[in-house]
Amino acid sequence: MAKTFSQFLIQKPLTTLVLSFLIIILIGTILLKLPWSTFQDISFINALFTATSATCVTGLIVQDTGSDFTLFGQIVILLLIQLGGLGIMTGAAFVYLFFKKGIGIKAGSGLKTILGEEYITEVRSAIKFIVKTTLLIEAIGAILLFIWWRSIFLETSQLTFYSIFHSVSAFCNAGFSLFRNSLENFRGDIALNVVISLLIILGGIGSLVLRDFQKKITSFFKKEKTRWTLHSKLVLISTLCLIFLGASLFYVFERENLDFLTGKEMVLTSFFQSITARTAGFNTVNIGKLTSPTLLLLTFLMFIGGAPAGTAGGIKVISLVLIFLSIISFFKRKEEISIFGRSLPKIYFRNVFILASVYLLFCLVIFSLLLYTEKGEFEKILFETFSAVGTVGLTTGITSQLSNTGKILITISMFVGRLLPLSLAILGSREIIKAKIAFPEEKIILG
User: Fold this and answer.
1) Is 338 helix (H, G, I), strand (E, B) or coil?
2) How far is CA 35 from CA 48, 404, 444, in A?
3) What angle do CA 389, 392, 393 make, to 5 degrees?
């Protein structure tokens, strides 16, 4: 039964991807509605919102995770985050492989697209690598947090659970925290900022880059030479540029507004918020107290997101690079678009244009509806919209104040935001059907 179900899940990647997330969210909602999941009764909409936020690794909350949910409820949220981070499709394929069965050509083609592999034969090793690496990094992160938090927790059991929960939440880029004010109490803690930031980055750069790291480390000990793939180069360079650009602008925009912070705290906060704004929803300062230029900066970072085949949302850093290269090529009047001595297929740029356009259009629709239903401040609702669609989870404080209609709109936004980039990638990877009849071309005027 389990084998049949797992095999079915990987036969139709796009349809099954949506259905799988819906099923997990529904199960999570039912579990969170159980009387022993919360200290006080939780409404169906709030349970659905929380389950969707956890499964879509967003981090927006309408009820405090640490104080409103029991240990059972927190474990449910943790499992939803882990499932959402690993990906339902990857998990299903891994279970199927566990029974020593082959993937098959049709199923392998779907997984090949999802995992970013060039050959179907590489899918098996890719799935095993993702699961093993995820659990290993989360375990190391939990151990480091356990060691560092020993001074603030009295009970070992509570310390253990808090360490595991925050490690998984950080690596999966979920941003859920058991502390009422997220990580604001640790804004000056260098070690904690570094550990959480590294977990977020490692989860956000994607499995393809992590596999390149593994190959580099292996080749170093074997004294062999290996090169970074073009994908890894673009992801690492663009990620570092966005982190430093975001941190620099955050520091400039907020150095007077956050004058109560020490110099060390200001630098740590600038880098931490630059890292977490693209992918995770942790915060070390009150987002609602930030200036308008900073909120606009964070909105842009949330729109970009992390890397493909990772746990982050957004249109992805690769899309930003392709847009940037396309603009440069246009002004240089070059037909071929290349970087690092490699040409890029033109179909990539078509797919990126479609992704960015659909993404922005969806954000505009949700934003307009929220403006009507919530009657709130323009910039705060705009920020909330991009945070939900980008599956980031940062908020200016209006999430818990949303109407039931607003909560439903944000729930839909988190769900669509999690699946939209991957769905469009799957559709874009399919062969283009060539028309049997070629129509004559006719020019139109642009600009």
Assistant:
1) strand
2) 15, 21, 63
3) 100
3-state secondary structure of 339: strand
Residues 361-390: what's their mean pLDDT? 94
What 366-373 contacts at long range (C-beta under 8 Å, 24+ apart), as own/partner pairs, is: 366/409, 366/410, 366/412, 366/413, 369/409, 370/406, 370/409, 370/410, 373/403, 373/405, 373/406, 373/409
pTM more than 0.85: yes
For strands 342-343 and 338-339, give the pairing: antiparallel
Task: Label each residue of 116-146 as H, E or C.
Answer: CCCCHHHHHHHHHHHHHHHHHHHHHHHHHHH
Rounded-to-integer distance, Cα 49 and Cα 407, Å: 7
In the predicted model, what is the mean pLDDT of residues 304-317?
Answer: 86
In one-letter notation, the amino acid at residue 370 is: L
| Domain ranges (residues) in the chain | 2-429
Calpha distance 316→334 (Å, rounded): 25
The amino acid at 145: L
Q: How do residues 351-370 score in pLDDT, each as one tens digit?
A: 889 989 999 999 999 999 99
- Token readout for 43 is 């409404």
What is the separation, in whole angstroms, between the first and last Cα of the chain?
59
pLDDT digits (tens, 9 = 90+) for 104-146: 544 555 555 555 555 455 666 777 888 889 999 999 999 999 9
Per the structure block, which two tokens stand in for 322? Answer: 């392709």
Strand partners, 69: 38
